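fold-stage: in
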Amino acid sequence: MQASERRWMLRGAGLLILVEVLALIILGAIVMTGGFSMGADARASAIERWVGAGSSGLWISGNAPKTKNPVLVNEQTLTRGAELYQGNCAVCHGGAHYEVSHLHKAVYPGVPQFMMAGGPDDPDENVFYVIKHGIRFTGMPAWEYNMNDNDMWTLVNFLKNMGHLPPAVQEKWNQMPMSPQLPSSPAPK
């Protein structure tokens, strides 16, 4: 490579670095001066939505355990799942009787209303992983500190079957009050 070509390459690299630094300074100034809303009810930009949706889907799929749900689906476990859901999840995701949560539009992105869709359609292990670890910047907490793995898998079974529960379980669920939090089994330390 000749000296003149090397100089042009170095100038080009230097210019690229300068442009990147200036872009970061401008973005930082916009954020620091309040030009970028951090409110939970603010609509995200198209770029933010694209990056968030793509990265969370890849993160979940790439990190979820490749294991089969160890909890059997039966009336007892579905009833326990309904108790866990109604006590811990319904306040955000909607409750029995197709109640839509008032928090649905209080955050962005909006909280999925599982009652309207009959539960999540992701694989069991992905749903478990989201329950256990939450999703940053969405309001979805990590339940690993409040629930043990067995209860989380039980909740997965309920979520995956909530659109077609046995009549006895549906009746019990319909009678459950929606509370902020139902104590669950202690999480492992």
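fold-stage: in (second)
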Amino acid sequence: MKGALSAVGLVVGLSVVFLTAFQNDSIAQIREEAQEISKEDRIVIKSDTLEVDQQKRLIVFEGKVRARRRDMTVDCQKMLVYYLDSSASTESNVESRQIDKIIALGNVTVNRSDGSVARAGKAVFFQAEEKIVLTEDPSVQQGRDIVEGEKIIILLKEERSIVEGSKGKPVRATLFPKEEEGGQ
């Protein structure tokens, strides 16, 4: 019975936080979402549908998915959120669930607060390591500069990236050096 109540609590809690039909952002809506996110590492996810699978510890968001946290926004077609088993925890409520990893699929765009924009067919966000792995034709753009490769790894805590190429797709960087002040 306790497991059933926990499952119901998870679904209800997630429904309240996550399940909102995606609409075009208005200024009021953007302000409201900014207040929801606040300074915590909370992630607010909106989509057309949500499905919870307790056995797999998986939450699936589909259709016009938008996930926001204080320093980034992710848009994609489908998002899989894997959470850790809380059976070892003394708490049995929704708040004891911790995210293990998030997989974003289909036309993934990651807009970061530093102004960079990452695009890929697939992005995997590893919560504990604060790492994003982009595959399926990934690219990252900062201003006019663009880097492309077979795989791009963004290490958020370290504020650095690693771009890997392959035989079929070498690393490619298109850089636009800034002119020095004083006019050269």
